[in-house]
Design a protein that fits this description.
about 140 residues, mainly alpha, 2 domains
Length: about 140
Amino acid sequence: MREYLARVYDKYFNRDYEESSRIQKEKRVKIDDVIKALQEHKAEQEVDTADTQQKILLLEKYRDTEPPFNDGQSKEILSLICYGNTGYCCGLTKTCPWRDAVLNLFNVSSEEYEKAKNELHNKLTDGKIIYDKKQDGNS
């Protein structure tokens, strides 16, 4: 009977040990995945921080310069915004310090910017430049 109990005990102990070992390995893998994801996130933040620092230096460079800017200067200033083109910028309902800084450097008011965005939109839609599915019969 003692031998039987010893075998049963060993069997349960070993199973528990094996199960515990498996759980520890799974836990380690999950923690390793979290660590890897956090390291990737940190690297992305470092790139963003470096990009932001370059943009700050650029703003400081042109802070006291009055327009008009030459083509090289304009291109450099526009590099602060998405795709380097105000046509891709959001409307003023969204917060964007880079867009606002560029508009400020070019002495463009919020009203002028919004008017220009609306005029461009109207020109594109009135001129049928926008693809219209209904014209193609695919509504």
